[in-house]
Design a protein that fits this description.
Oligomer: single chain
Radius of gyration: 23 Å
Distance between the termini: 28 Å
Bound molecules: flavin-adenine dinucleotide
Strand content: 15-25%
Structural class: alpha/beta
Length: about 475
């Protein structure tokens, strides 16, 4: 039987893959495409994570697609609502029919003479198959679906309660009336604490060091006002742009005036928690705001849980697990029936697939980013990586639009290959992400690098990317096309 072939193979049916497919259908109707998805459901992150309270921590007006505005009243949405939104989008656009579930990309081989990728897929029963494509579009997210980051704690095996990781939340986990200990201080911990505190006997969040937090209403008051005076489409468009610009403003202020922003954020926390809280110890991070993701607290739910006494924060280090909880470096002991290790994600590039170009293995870390979409030495391949300081979808949408422009340009000019050449010698290369978050630091040797200037530098700025990806020239003198 002849090997199957499509013009574009999209890898992953999460938020990025579904958005990519919608763009392809609209802007490249003459191209054939398929989506391969390792799991048996669409939605990626929003289907995988099932812990109590799971929700977005950016507003849905910017986390929703530009082509399908988020119209629900709540701007900070729960996980199931986001999953429904993705399912509805896929169904409305007929993209769901293009998804082949249970197909994991193991490796992809580019052949320059044939100008095509041969992609090896593994099915659940262990059998493999191949599919060929002219263009490979990776929408496989940024972390390992097999398991989250789970450090080994001393004495862990002694603990007689349950130890769980939020990435694999046990459906049967009954925590009503139990002592819960959440290890971590990131967005997941801050979400879990108030959600579990409603039913648990008590929830303690144990952190090595604090994270910056800010309370925001889950119902956007300005957005609501706009909806009451304007037609819905106009109101949603304006709300989206308000949030994009406000987000950029906050990030800029954090870079330019970190001290002022520290005071503002700490003032907010102090106001929310009252005089009992030890702000210096438990709520003042060691880094400046937006050097790691700023943690959003919708409607101040985390602060309410702390203030009511249903939850508490401890800043200390684990010395050892015991049969009944943990002992800390300070000598204190924390009892627990359930310990949640909200210790983060394990990063994975290209969905852990191996890439070969003409037989030569390509490691992501050896490549340099081009426009935040492609990489040096890897022809006809784009990948989606959203913003760290704004909603993922803002970049995913722009990436999809750029890929469509690129594909149309190639078809128009008869080009069969586009390749990013190596950067000129001597250009300083920088880490891909300048976040100090543990999960980026742990994966530093996995990630590509970026150059010191355009088009090698990541913008991390929606407005600059609109110019570069929506309106910038495709044939920019850097990207090399061949027939
Ligand atoms: C709990 C949580 C909350 C988040 N909240 C926000 C937020 O509020 N705002 C924000 O901007 N970002 C947030 N993020 C980041 C979030 O991951 C992105 O917003 C977005 O969902 C990523 O979509 P994606 O499609 O690129 O990746 P994913 O959602 O990870 O989907 C990738 C898909 O690719 C599939 N896949 C991977 N490898 C392969 C392979 N080799 N072969 C076949 N299929 C493969 C996976 O099975 C998966 O379905 C959050 C992340 C987490 C974990």
């Amino acid at each position: 039987m002849a090997e199957e072939s499509v013009d574009v193979l999209v890898v992953g049916a999460g938020l990025s893959g579904i958005g990519a497919a919608c763009h392809l259908q609209k802007f490249c109707p003459g191209h054939t495409y398929a989506i391969v998805e390792a799991r048996h459901a669409l939605g990626g992150t929003w289907d995988l994570f099932r812990y109590p309270g799971v929700r977005s921590d950016s507003d849905m007006h910017t986390l929703g697609y530009s082509f399908r505005p988020w119209a629900a009243a709540k701007a900070i949405a729960d996980g199931p609502s986001i999953l429904n939104y993705l399912r509805d989008t896929a169904r409305e656009h007929g993209v769901d029919r293009k998804i082949r579930f249970g197909q994991r990309v193991l490796r992809a081989d580019w052949s320059t003479p044939d100008s095509c990728w041969t992609v090896q897929l593994r099915q659940d029963d262990g059998s493999t198959s191949t599919i060929r494509c002219s263009f490979l579009y990776m929408c496989s997210g940024y972390y390992d679906y097999a398991g989250g980051y789970q450090p080994r704690f001393p004495g862990q095996e002694r603990f007689r309660g349950r130890l769980v990781h939020p990435q694999h939340w046990p459906e049967d986990l009954a925590y009503a009336g139990k002592q819960v200990l959440v290890i971590g201080s990131g967005a997941t911990a801050v979400t879990l604490v108030p959600a579990m505190a409603d039913h648990a006997a008590h929830v303690t969040m144990l952190q090595r060091s604090p994270t910056w937090m800010v309370a925001r209403p889950s119902l956007d008051p300005v957005g609501a006002r706009l909806r009451s005076v304007l037609p819905l489409r106009a109101a949603l468009w304006l709300t989206r742009w308000k949030n994009i610009l406000f987000g950029l403003f906050v990030v800029r202020m954090c870079k330019r005036k970190p001290q002022r922003m520290r005071e503002l954020l700490l003032g907010g926390v102090r106001h929310a928690l009252g005089p009992q809280a030890d702000i210096a110890k438990d709520y003042t991070p060691r880094y400046n705001p937006w050097e790691q993701r700023l943690c959003l607290v919708p409607d101040g739910d985390f602060f309410d849980a702390i203030r009511s006494g249903r939850a508490s924060v401890v800043t200390d280090q684990i010395e050892s697990f015991t049969e009944t909880g943990v002992t800390l470096a300070s000598g204190a002991a924390l009892p627990a029936d359930i310990i949640v290790s909200a210790t983060g994600l394990k990063l994975a590039m290209m969905g852990n697939a191996e890439l070969f170009v003409d037989g030569q293995r390509i490691a992501s870390a050896q490549t340099v980013n081009y426009k935040g979409v492609m990489a040096t030495g890897v022809p006809n391949l784009a990948s989606t990586f959203g913003y760290t300081t704004a909603s993922w979808t803002l970049k995913a949408d722009l990436t999809a639009r750029y890929v469509c422009r690129l594909l149309n340009h190639m078809r128009r000019t008869g080009a069969r290959e586009c390749r990013v050449p190596q950067v000129e010698p001597g250009m300083a290369l920088l880490p891909w992400v300048d976040f100090s978050s543990g999960y980026f630091q742990r994966a530093a040797d996995l990630l590509p690098r970026q150059g010191a200037r355009k088009p090698w530098k990541l913008n991390q700025n929606y407005l600059s990317d609109v110019l570069a990806l929506r309106f910038g020239s495709i044939d920019d003198g850097v990207l090399r096309f061949s027939r």
